[in-house]
Specification:
The protein is built from eight helices and nine strands. It is an alpha/beta fold. The protein has one domain: Rossmann fold (3-Layer(aba) Sandwich). The protein has a seven-stranded parallel sheet with strand order 3-2-1-4-5-6-9, sandwiched between helices. Strands 7-8 form a two-stranded parallel sheet. Strand 2, helix 2 and strand 3 form a beta-alpha-beta unit.
């Protein structure tokens, strides 16, 4: 059960949050007192998700658009400041997965994965950090990595590369941002049941078999970790990556 005072007077941006993990992060933040800018590339999804949280008395504003677009990033920062007066937390959750054999992987797919997963995360962090620096009261930035940034997965060379790079970015930003009281971390989810996987019985069955704890994660499992990493309880944690995978990376059996 969320602590309805844990994020009182805090303002957060969460990208790619129309459904799945991002939405649940927004849900837990708003239920804990935060004001949230909820972003999704699909306008209808963003508006519906924000509306659902508002019905639960959550303080949430939708900003639709591509999270890798500099104008959308500026709009999210501007909306946080104009609506709520500041920005305390930025969670770069938006990302895309484009499978493909390395030997034939198209340039267009590579560029799309890097632009969204890396470019969107990098420039959201940059814009958020500049706003936090201006405010002078610190803040928290969180990147969304993956177990594929730790263990090889077939047909995910580009995706895994992008996720491993985010973990290096978090470590590097410790040097750049610690003097401003800004923490930068990543979480690395393993197999997770979301709207994209919940209707695939093979997904649930396969990952339940090869995950030591006996099931894939829920979005609630992942969101709990994300919310902790941007909370006051984690203020002395920075440059780290937290893997949430039910033990899968300890044994790493292939799902194929």
């Amino acid at each position: 059960m969320p602590d309805d005072e844990a994020f009182a007077n805090k303002v957060a941006i969460v990208t790619g949050a129309g459904q799945g993990i991002g939405f649940e992060i927004c849900h837990q933040l708003t239920q804990s007192g935060a004001s949230v800018i909820l972003n999704d590339k699909e306008e209808k999804l963003a508006i519906q998700a924000a509306g659902q949280l508002q019905k639960e008395n959550g303080n949430c504003v939708a900003v639709a658009g591509d999270a890798s677009d500099s104008k959308i990033i500026e709009k999210m920062i501007g909306t946080a400041v104009s609506q709520f007066g500041k920005l305390d937390i930025a969670i770069a959750n938006a990302g895309i997965t484009l499978f493909g054999d390395f030997l034939t992987y198209p340039v267009s797919s590579f560029r799309a994965v890097m632009e969204t997963n890396l470019g969107g995360s990098f420039f959201l962090a940059q814009a958020a950090a500049n706003q936090m620096k201006k405010q002078g009261s610190g803040g928290s930035i969180l990147f969304m990595s993956s177990v594929t940034g730790h263990q090889a997965h077939k047909n995910l060379a580009a995706y895994g590369m992008s996720k491993a790079a985010l973990e290096m970015l978090a470590r590097n930003l410790v040097i750049e941002l610690s003097e401003y009281g800004i923490t930068v971390n990543t979480i690395a989810p393993g197999a997770t049941n979301t709207e994209r996987t919940i209707d695939d019985p093979a997904y649930e069955k396969t990952w339940s078999r090869i995950t030591p704890l006996g099931r894939p994660a829920s979005t609630t499992d992942i969101a709990h970790a994300a919310v902790f990493m941007v909370s006051a309880a984690a203020r002395h944690i920075t440059g780290q990556s937290l893997v949430i995978d039910g033990g899968w990376t300890s044994v790493s059996p292939s799902p194929y």
